[in-house]
Design brief:
Layout (H helix, E strand, L loop, with lengths): L2 E7 L3 H12 L6 E7 L5 E6 L16 E7 L14 E2 L5 E9 L2 H10 L11 H10 L4 H9 L4 E9 L6 E6 L4 E4 L3 E5 L12 E3 L4 E5 L4 E5 L21 H7 L1 H9 L3 E2 L4 E2 L8 H5 L3 E6 L1 H17 L4 E5 H4 L10 E7 L5 H12 L3 E6 L5 H5 L2 E4 L12 H20 L4 H22 L2 H11 L4 E6 L4 H15 L2 E6 L17 E4 L6 H13 L4 E6 L4 H5 L2 E5 L7 H19 L18
Helix pairs in contact: 3-4, 6-12, 6-13, 8-12, 8-15, 12-13, 13-18, 14-18, 15-18
Bound molecules: 2-deoxy-2-amino glucitol-6-phosphate (AGP).
Length: about 600
Amino acid sequence: MCGIVGYIGKKPAFPILLSGLKRLEYRGYDSFGFFVFDKEKPFLFKKVGKISQFEQDFPNPSGEIGIAHTRWATTGEVTEANAHPHFDCQKEIFLVHNGIIENYQALKAKLIKEGHKFTSECDTEVLCHLIEKYFEGNLEEGVRKALREVRGAYGIAVVSKKDPEKIVVARLSSPLLLGIGNDELLVASDPSAVITRTRQVINLDDNEIAVLKPDNFFILKEKPLETIEWEGEKAEKKGYPYFMLKEIMEESEAIENAIRGRLAIEEGSVKLGGLDTIQGKLRKINRLILVACGTASFAARVGEYMLEEYAGIPAEVDIGSEFRYRKPVVDKNTAAIFISQSGETADTLAALREMKKKGILTLGITNVVGSAQARETDAGIYTRLGSEIAVASSKAFIGQLAALAMLTVYLGRQKEMALIMGKRIVSELAKLPDLAREVLKLAPEIEKLAKKYQDYKNFWFIGRKYNFPIASEGALKLKELSYLHAEGTAGGELKHGSLALIDENFPTIAICPSDSVYEKMVSNIEEVKARGGPMIAVATQGNEEIRKLVDDVIYIPKTLEMLTPILSVIPLHLFAYYMAVLLGHDVDRPRNLAKSVTVE
Ligand code: AGP
């Protein structure tokens, strides 16, 4: 990281910049530089080495506006040419920068094609030429347009001979604050550079541009340009009769999108860029609260099992509409995770704002880029699924489970999870898209099953441990799509009352992969069979024994226990879809429902 400082006021800028820069030198000391507007001749001074080595050489320009920089080299060697401030072709725009311009090579190649002459290898210089390209007399307009093309992190301060009486500053990720003094304004990477002049500071937020003038300043909020990841045609049904079926058939792709570029199999870990800014804070977390609504809350319940068993962090789940009115006992080592496809669900957002008021670290698992949840949480994971149009959620649920599995590895590897376990989970995750494709090939078979069971009016879904929430999700999907009565419970709960409902008219769907609780599920299946209830089982390929116990079996491929929900839910989404079609309902727009519940 580098240090930048700027001054505009009624005093000679150089000595103030010098003292500020010395206080920032801990941030990097490969080289340093100044630019000061001086009536006679603008003063540019850059040196490789520490400030103290050159103090005796410093002239004393009288200008009252200037910027300065101390460098920790990232892009470009430690040379005077790569030292800041950088400038444009006409040496009219001068700029200091703390951060990294990730797409600078592409921008540089384009600018050179357009005739710009570069004098350094430093990524920062592209900013000067971009501003030069867009400068039409107003510096902040030039800066605003230039930054739209930039990807990366920056805290910058810019001055221009053509629009002299101001310093334009901007920030994205890199820290930047304004020092509000008497008849003077400062800008700096941290408070230590301004504290000798003022204690009044304004910390700029991401995407804010401030214009500092001798007698005032104003801040512009630049709304980041966000790219819709999915192509227009994807919003079309692509030949499917309903978005619901299209989105179910995209569930394998959903896993692929969610895990792409995030699995580090050799390290047995995952890369979640969206959490990097809070990595340190996450290490101190010893309790997790997961909050969501509807289908997303069932994903949270699967996450609860994953995080406790594999990341060793106590976790609890609550639904947004309840959590917002609870008085949860939380402390600074608690973090709250909010899961929402739309990122606009009112109950989940209200719970989020409650936790923010209490200063709790908040994470979001969100699909819609730039949604309120994504903006208001401290950090998060995008599920990257493209748009989910059908009201009933399907691929978003799968994306949320994949995100929770990656979060489990991310947090687990920060704590007790061993490399070998991390490798097992991550390499299994990498196989899931193909395994999901295998399950999706069962669609015609599941359509037949829906036909066979279309006359029943009530359905029970049972599952245990990781697949208990899948029983709830299966029931919700059938309810919201087919308007049939359906319940989802833990297999072990049946004998505590609900079993009374079971008879030959009340089919049960048992989600019973060959996992650590399979034997227990078998006893629950026998309880139901004993009451004459028709039964469908979702079981692991190769399990022939189950055929003898139930009427119909849907086989899913074998995978790690914690990942079985990502496969076992797919047949339930298809079953609900085909049942709804058979019953002639508008599958994409079920009655009484809305895609994003933005009201309480
Ligand atoms: C699910 O099929 C429903 N559409 C509903 O339960 C949904 O999951 C819930 O409203 C939460 O929506 P969100 O993920 O956008 O917050």
